[in-house]
């Protein structure tokens, strides 16, 4: 698990009196070359991820009401007014249900795949996103937000035009969000090689799925090529992308972080996944298993 070191209150006061910005302030992230990021929520109750450099913030997905989104952003110290753009992975409600209200109430553009809008016309129309707020992109097309550069890659899910996102920052950090996909590819693994922080779906444990209450048809959908990644597939991806160092991939270990996201409450268990990960991820990659609905935030020191 990722552990954070907290500065004592008297040290915070002394640092502030010396002219340095207080930890957690917007000026702190900008001047101390820090990046704040957070899982605002993961799972069937709502998904959203935020990345904040002290001046600009971007969201990936918006599966919460505007009120709940603001509450969760406040919880991690990111002002709602700092959000410049939202990037959608796909149009399922646990990822997109809040985007209509957000874009109708605030001047926040939505970045979404062309194929998603063209292929899911009924679902898209129900979101009622103002046309002026929509920026349609294709796979690999870069969108700049301040020092952020963001581009998408295709995933395979039963929502047309689904995408994952690469978030690069000018200070030298990279994030990758890979969720809601039935399979991973070599190109995805190559992109993940240079990711400092990886948000990776681990939706189900095969045994729990096969022995659980879901009917066979639904089981097939979940474990199919257009469904979700299992724990085993997630670990295979981590080995291929160098987050788990083996004699086969022969990669030099370096400090990286993995957040396991989008766990099923029926077909997976945070404790089980943590146990499985702990038995394999013994190198410099730290991991966090994200439970449904909970918030996880941390900071990343960007290279100078």
TrEMBL record:
Domain of life where this protein originates: Bacteria
Record InterPro entries: Metallo-B-lactamas, RibonucZ/Hydroxyglut_hydro, WalJ/YycJ-like
Domain Metallo-beta-lactamase: 45-228
Name of protein: Beta-lactamase domain protein
């Amino acid at each position: 698990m990722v552990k954070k070191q907290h500065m004592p209150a008297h040290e915070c006061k002394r640092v502030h009196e010396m002219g340095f910005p207080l930890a957690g302030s917007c000026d702190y992230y900008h001047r101390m070359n820090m990046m704040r990021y957070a899982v605002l929520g993961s799972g069937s109750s709502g998904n959203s991820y935020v990345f904040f450099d002290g001046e600009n913030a971007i969201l990936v997905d918006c599966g919460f009401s505007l009120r709940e989104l603001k509450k969760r952003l406040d919880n991690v110290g990111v002002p709602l007014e700092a959000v410049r753009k939202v990037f959608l992975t796909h149009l399922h409600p646990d990822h997109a249900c809040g985007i209509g209200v957000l874009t109708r109430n605030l001047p926040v553009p939505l970045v979404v795949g062309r194929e998603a809008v063209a292929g899911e016309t009924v679902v898209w129309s129900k979101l009622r996103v103002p046309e002026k707020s929509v920026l349609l992109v294709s796979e690999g097309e870069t969108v700049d937000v301040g020092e952020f550069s963001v581009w998408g890659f295709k995933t395979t899910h039963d929502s047309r035009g689904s995408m994952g996102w690469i978030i690069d920052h000018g200070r030298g950090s990279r994030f990758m969000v890979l969720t809601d996909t039935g399979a991973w590819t070599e190109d995805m693994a190559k992109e993940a090689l240079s990711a400092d922080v990886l948000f990776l779906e681990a939706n189900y444990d095969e045994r729990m799925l096969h022995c659980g209450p879901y009917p066979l048809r639904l089981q097939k959908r979940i474990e199919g090529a257009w469904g979700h990644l299992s724990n085993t597939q997630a670990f295979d991806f981590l080995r291929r992308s160098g987050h788990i160092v083996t004699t086969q991939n022969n990669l030099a270990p370096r400090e990286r972080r993995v957040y396991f996201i989008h766990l099923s409450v029926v077909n997976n268990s945070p404790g089980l996944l943590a146990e499985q990960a702990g038995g394999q991820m013994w190198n410099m990659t730290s991991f966090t298993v994200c439970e449904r609905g909970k918030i996880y935030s941390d900071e990343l020191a960007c290279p100078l």
